[in-house]
Amino acid sequence: MKLLIADDDRISRLLLRSILLPLPDCTLVEAADGHSAWNLLNEPPPPDLCILDNVMPGLTGLSLLERIRQEPKLARLPVILCTSSRELECVERAARLRARHYILKPFQAQLVRQTVLQAYRETQAHQALADPDEGCQRLGLSRQDFAALLAELLADLEPALTRIGAALGDGTLPTALLETNALRGACAHLGARPLAEALARMEDALRHTLPTLQNDNTPYDIRSQHVARLVALLEHLRCEASHLIRAAQIHLAPPVPSAAFPDPALVP
After folding, report:
1. Residue 10 CB partners (closer than 8 Å, separation 6+)
2. What is the pLDDT of residues 187-230, one digit of tens each?
3. From its phi and psi, is residue 56 left (phi > 0), alpha (psi between -120 and 50) or beta?
4. 56, 57, 138, 161 from 30: Cα distances, Å
């Protein structure tokens, strides 16, 4: 996990470094102002997550966040806003810019780690499932209707993969191909891109394998190699399906502010 810390206060950066470095596979880069942070964000590879202090010279954290959301390659970057402010206006503006998490000063180490790990898990979820709001806009659906369709897809995942596995087992590859194609279409519609791509690879393998297995003259060892590849692809499908299920749970859960994120309704 590559994490960018942008804060003009050196002590705050040192504290965050000491709190976050013990996290597994954590790499930190630092900036002392918003402009330097923007330059670092545009250096490949971009960070997986960034913590922005709200009050910085030149370019505030909220102003930098707005710029991030306007840049296509960074628009979905998870951002944690770091501030000592509990002002409702600040919280509401951050929420409009899709900053789901806050870290309040003075720091509490456990809460800082929890907030960072939660935001990172959401990053992983985005890799398995596109933002539901984008799907709603693309499909012309309400969030409730989108959630209902996604629930239907999740409910059919295991039965569909079981049917594909059974078709591979009894040699009815055309049936497996039809099941794979139908499931791929549903995943593509709802933004489950990694699973849709894995299903597309399975489709290609089935189309390539079908003539070989239907040929009675194909040697046994060649048949075995093709079947083994299909089984391996099926296991990969199951792995991607489990990622999608976890991602959907994160995306569709009601937003619950962490202890480090003030609920706007509770701000005096």
Report:
1. 32
2. 999 999 889 989 999 999 999 998 888 888 889 888 888 888 89
3. beta
4. 13, 15, 37, 45
What does the pLDDT look like over 14-34, one tens digit per residue?
999 999 998 888 899 999 999
Two tokens at 115? 């907030």
Q: Where are the beta strands (DSSP E) in the chain?
A: 2-6, 27-31, 49-53, 79-83, 101-104
Kindly state the tokens that stand for 54. 């709200």
- Per the structure block, which two tokens stand in for 140? 């012309």
Domains and CATH numbers, the chain: 2-128 (3.40.50.2300), 134-252 (1.20.120)
Nearest Cα residue to 77 out of 98, 56, 57: 98
Stated pTM of the model: 0.55
Name the percent of the chain lying above pLDDT 70: 90
Q: Report the residue count for the chain.
A: 268
For 172, the token pair is 């009815």
* C-beta separation of 194 from 129 below 8 A: no
Per-residue pLDDT at 259 = 41
CA distance 203 to 209: 10
Respond yes or no on whether the N-terminal peptide bond of residue 254 is cis (omega within 30° of 0). Answer: no
Q: How far apart are CA 55 and CA 109, in angstroms?
A: 21
> Per-residue pLDDT for 100 more than 80?
no
Q: Which of 125, 121, 116 is nearest to 27 (CA)?
A: 116
Q: Is 137 helix (H, G, I), strand (E, B) or coil?
A: helix
